Amino acid sequence: MITETRTGRGFAVAAVLAAALIWSSSFAVTKVALAEIPPMTLGALRFAVAAAVLGVVVHTGRHRLPSPRQRLAIGFAGLLGITAYFALENAGVDLATASDATLIVAAYPIITLALSGRAAFSPVRLTGMLVAVAGVWLVVRGQTGGASDHRLWGDVLLVAGGVAWAAYNLVVRRDGSGASPIVVTYYQTLAGAGGFVLLSLTEADRWSVPAGGDLLRIAFLAAFCSVAAFLLYNFGLRGLEPSVAVTLLTIVPVAGLGWAVVLAGETLTVSQLLGGAIVIAGVSLGSLRKEA
Fold first, then answer.
1. Rounded distance, CA 38 to CA 243, Å?
2. Most-buried pick from 90, 111, 127, 159 (CB within 10 A)?
3. Residue 279, CA atoms < 13 Å, CB-side half-sphere
4. Residue 137 forms part of a structural domain
5. Which ranges in 118-241 belong to alpha helices (H)?
């Protein structure tokens, strides 16, 4: 029984880490796409495509669908984790940088811990969180150049996105529908896409036909970052506490910095690389828990 429990936890950790590695590329891809596509419109296109893909899979397979009431609860989680979070992320990345976005994500575990209640805290886990945040501070402190006049507001929006993401984790953890991860992800994405479509109407005067490169970026964000990563993350959440799952996401800044250099043309300093190493140490420490 102990072996099965540890194996299940291992799969959950692996699933969340895989989702994190996929998501780490989304900031740089989003930053490049935002040069031509408005932030809310990009979100609407991304999640509308993702909802269509998931809809085909769910409705052509033998999946048990949740009740109408359960769909409303799942949809609410989608409004938090998709519409609210990604609207704040897209707007934040548009004003700030891809590097800022990848690094601020590392502060999300602290927000999730604060909202999770006293049971989520332990000396070892809290130390790991603080070490990870210290690494982020070192990276941000070492950044130079490339900032716009609105970068601070972009960072504020990205931090606000952390509150939405923490709330999403807590809501998903309480899901009692018993539906499979792909069904849950579908209804979350469907609700999130609907929210984004409404927000995108405010940008109607800026709409244009996306170029070929932007279409590929939208397809990547939809298929990998929205479908595959969310499936993996929702699967992982079933075997982990929200605070542990979000702690594992602090690997995103480290991998995301590499994508920011390759795709968005941003530069890194020695202090940023050192900070990234400290973030990894904090992730490893924060993921530990006392075994019963």
1. 32
2. 90
3. 32
4. yes
5. 123-141, 151-173, 181-200, 212-220, 229-237
Q: For 144-198, how does the pLDDT look when each residue is reduced to its tens digit (9 = 90+)?
A: 454 555 777 888 898 899 889 888 988 887 777 788 888 988 999 999 999 999 9
42-67 average pLDDT score: 92
Quote the number of domains for the chain.
Answer: 1
How far from each other are the two terminal CA atoms of the chain, in whole angstroms? 13
For residues 106 and 103, give the distance between their C-alpha atoms in angstroms, rounded to a whole number. 6
Q: Read off the tokens for 120.
A: 């989520």
Residue 152's domain spans which residues? 18-286
Question: What is the rounded distance in angstroms from the CA atom of residue 166 to the CA atom of residue 111?
Answer: 6
Q: Which residue has the tokens 């972009």?
A: 154
CA distances from 158 to 7, 84, 126, 164 (A): 35, 11, 22, 10
Lowest mean pLDDT among 35-39, 63-67, 82-86, 254-258: 254-258
In a domain, 113, yes or no: yes
pLDDT over 90 percentage in the chain? 33
Cβ contacts of 153 within 8 Å, gap of 6 or more: 95
- Please say whether the beta carbons of 224 and 22 come within 8 A: yes
Query: Which pTM value belongs to this model?
Result: 0.78
